[in-house]
Amino acid sequence: DAGVTQSPTHLIKTRGQHVTLRCSPISGHKSVSWYQQVLGQGPQFIFQYYEKEERGRGNFPDRFSARQFPNYSSELNVNALLLGDSALYLCASSTLRGTNYGYTFGSGTRLTVV
Amino acid sequence: GEDVEQSLFLSVREGDSSVINCTYTDSSSTYLYWYKQEPGAGLQLLTYIFSNMDMKQDQRLTVLLNKKDKHLSLRIADTQTGDSAIYFCAESVRTSYDKVIFGPGTSLSVIP
Q1: B21-71 pLDDT, tens per residue?
Q2: Cα separation of A83 and B105, whole Å?
Q3: Could you read off the pLDDT of A29-63 as tens digits, one per residue?
Q4: How far is B97 from chain A (nearest CA, A)?
Q5: Which of B28, B38, B99 to probe the A interface (max A CBs under 10 A)?
Q6: CA B51 to CA B20: how far, in whole Å?
Q7: CB-based contact (8 Å) between A53 and chain B?
Q8: DSSP code, position A2
């Protein structure tokens, strides 16, 4: 069975540009969460989606948005990129609305903003 | 508030036991987790413990939870060079939804 897949694996963008990151959860998982991991730090919560609805949002500006599709895959969009948006973006899926049994993470998308 | 703290570095000799410590602040945490991250990779769930448990053992891994002190530890027995990685402590916080709060990670170096 495929795990959580994210694309692309690496991306270089210029300040001010827009980026879309994609995530496919494990088959049967209806909950998808997005995290930002800046180098040397732990992951920071951005969004959680369950059954195609936003269930939670972390302390991130409105430049960050996301959505979940009927097949439970998800996109994270970031507008007006800043240098500080350079990070590893992790997608995680779980079977339940909650995270009782832990997330399964993808390998992430490494975004570099220059 | 929601905060998870860990010591940032730990160095042990191969074959010794490693103990990674973590403190958290949210008393409503339901589950606590240990994740492992190897260079350039995503996060791998190692183990988790329910908040009403004191201890959980899984092969070389032992998790101890002191709920009164909000202290969690991960013991790795017979540490191997392949255990070198960053270990993240995390807590599940129940608000109107469930989210997982991560600590800053402990970088474990195993000396051959």
Answers
A1: 999 988 777 889 999 999 888 899 999 998 888 999 999 999 999 999 999
A2: 23
A3: 888 999 999 998 999 999 999 888 998 899 999 99
A4: 6
A5: B99
A6: 18
A7: no
A8: -
